[in-house]
Amino acid sequence: MIAVRDRQDRKAFAKLVDYFAPRLKGFIMRSGTSTAHAEEIVQDVLLTAWRKASLFDPHRAQVSAWIYQIARNRQIDVVRKESRPVPEILIEVSPTEPDAPQILAMDQETEQLKHALARLNENQREIIEKAYLGELTHQEISSQIGQPLGTIKSRIRLGLERLRHELKGLR
């Protein structure tokens, strides 16, 4: 690992791969991961070990401990990614055209929302419009207007709370 870290030695890395790949695969598969998935994780772990070799410190950990820690972290990432809830498919309740009272109610709600948005302070309104009407991420908004990400998130949260209060009687 020292040769990989200091000289990007490909032969030394090939030896590490030959030694650790089957062991990592077994380690990962023992947790119930499929063979194909385990092979992907092993490949990712070894690629990370190559890319982050400069971070290896033999005084802090042995090579095996360092590589197995990378594998464990990658496996946790994969499990978290897989266990994220997937939104259910939205089922259209009424396939028919909305009738006149529904159209009128939607128009009234739209007007109330416009008025509630107009009552927000300018900073909150601008950010909420960019986030929900412009469909920008918080990071994109932060970059676009030159404000810290935390400020963007706070303004959105406070603006939405105020909108909720303003529109409380709507539904």
UniProtKB/TrEMBL annotation:
Q: Where is the RNA polymerase sigma-70 region domain?
A: 16-84, 116-165
A single GO BP annotation from the record?
DNA-templated transcription initiation
Do you know which InterPro entries this protein is assigned to? RNA_pol_sigma-70-like, RNA_pol_sigma-70_dom, RNA_pol_sigma70_ECF_CS, RNA_pol_sigma70_r2, RNA_pol_sigma70_r4, RNA_pol_sigma_r2, RNA_pol_sigma_r3/r4-like, WH-like_DNA-bd_sf
Coiled-coil region list: 103-130
Q: Which UniProt keywords apply?
A: Coiled coil, DNA-binding, Sigma factor, Transcription, Transcription regulation
Task: Note the superkingdom of the native organism.
Answer: Bacteria
A Pfam family matched in the record = Sigma70_r2
Query: Can you tell me which family this protein belongs to?
Result: Belongs to the sigma-70 factor family. ECF subfamily.
PANTHER family for the chain? RNA POLYMERASE ECF-TYPE SIGMA FACTO, RNA POLYMERASE SIGMA FACTOR SIGZ
NCBIfam families in UniProt: sigma70-ECF
What name does this protein carry? Answer: RNA polymerase sigma factor
Phylogenetic lineage:
Bacteria, Pseudomonadati, Pseudomonadota, Alphaproteobacteria, Rhodobacterales
